[in-house]
Amino acid sequence: VSAGAPAGTRTRAGAAAGAKRGPLGVGIIGAGVISAQYLRNLTGFPDVEVLFVADLDVARASARALEFGIPGHGTVAELLAEPGIEIVVNLTTPAAHAEVGLQILAAGKHVWTEKPLALDLESGRRLLDAATDRGLRVASAPDTFLGAGLQTGLRAVRRGAIGEPLTGLALFQSPGPEAWHPNPEFLFAAGGGPLFDMGPYYLTLLVQVFGPAARVTASASTSKARRAIGSGPRAGTEFEVSVPTHHSALIEFAGGASALAVFSFQAHLRRSPLVEVSGTDGSIAFPDPNQFAGDTQLATAGGDETLSPAGPVSGRGTGVLELARAIRSGATERASGALGYHVLDIMVSISRSAREGRPVDVASTVDRAATLPEDWDPSAATLTREREPRH
Ligand SMILES: NC(=O)c1ccc[n+]([C@@H]2O[C@H](COP(=O)([O-])OP(=O)(O)OC[C@H]3O[C@@H](n4cnc5c(N)ncnc54)[C@H](O)[C@@H]3O)[C@@H](O)[C@H]2O)c1
């Protein structure tokens, strides 16, 4: 692997040799809120086949499996014992991500994990090392940057539409998700808060634009020590807030560019999600980095231009499909564990900078991922079961 080569273009020696063929069997651990979106999309991609849904709450797993016509459902141990499953999608809450990921790898299966990769750098590193030791992969959400919306914006930046990107502005602010999530405690505990919950979408996009971050300077605040659940059967129940509900950060990138980012669950003025980047020759406004579609706005001396998403629009699970195809071809997946780890490193560094009141260096680094071809089609069946003829 040569330094500087974009992910998605490298070949892992031997990865494809003697490998299995055809669509990859997928298992899902965690049958909560987000599993519905994953199941809806993954069951529509011919290159993967969802075989099993598991949860600590077995009844919840069964209900989800029934809803989407998935043949297997039950415990995590039962899922991990299924020989046809090659990729396990980890949709548990953040505190369980690393531990469940390690169990998946120990069972000899590849991991797709929801964000954040882990709660801290040590467990994130342990997860990536365990995968390397076993010749398996860990890939990580978000996969929104693989959607046609953000890919269209990224292709414009890569072809020089704004010249050299110099400065960025990222803003997410809302009153907080406890109004709509029926079990929102994890969103206000370690691994949550607006930084760890929403930050991954914005920071992943910024890294795709500017390359790796090198240093952060941040401040934080917490508006309320307790909040109340706003929907579902437990509405009205109060819970403790144990992480900051606002972070402001200055991010300096290794290449010399910088970005200002605000992540807030304590703003009653709702703002549209914002990621804007200005370069030597123009500015670009990306669509919502938590979505797969949306228009990109370009502004240059030549005038303004709206770019609608080029290529098919798919939703959550696109990264699982891209991982599956990369496993079969031997290429490196774009939403890689290394990218998830670098984004985790930026978030851990932002929290630390705010806590300690000083700039913090970001030690890890990662290459930007190659953009997807415009004709990359999630609904295509590209993995055949037939063996190539012997010569
Ligand atoms: N809700 C959203 O809109 C959303 C969007 C994008 C990403 N995510 C991410 O997806 C993940 C899950 O979020 P959610 O909203 O679906 O949460 P949720 O609380 O609705 O569901 C999580 C499920 O995981 C199960 N679980 C927890 N620990 C487990 C373990 N050790 N083994 C097996 N099952 C376990 C729980 O029983 C629960 O059913 C989080 O990482 C979150 O950041 C959520």
Description:
The chain has nine helices and 17 strands. The chain has a nine-stranded mixed sheet. A six-stranded parallel sheet has the order 3-2-1-4-5-6, with helices on both faces. With 391 residues, the protein is α/β, with parallel strands linked by helices. The two termini are 30 Å apart. It binds nicotinamide-adenine-dinucleotide. Nicotinamide-adenine-dinucleotide binds at residues 29-35, 55-57, 60, 76, 91-94, 96, 100, 114-115, 183, 197. Nicotinamide-adenine-dinucleotide is lined by residues 29-35, 55-57, 60, 76, 91-94, 96, 100, 114-115, 183, 197.
List keywords for this structure.
391 residues; alpha/beta; nine-stranded mixed beta sheet; six-stranded parallel beta sheet; 17 strands; 28% helix
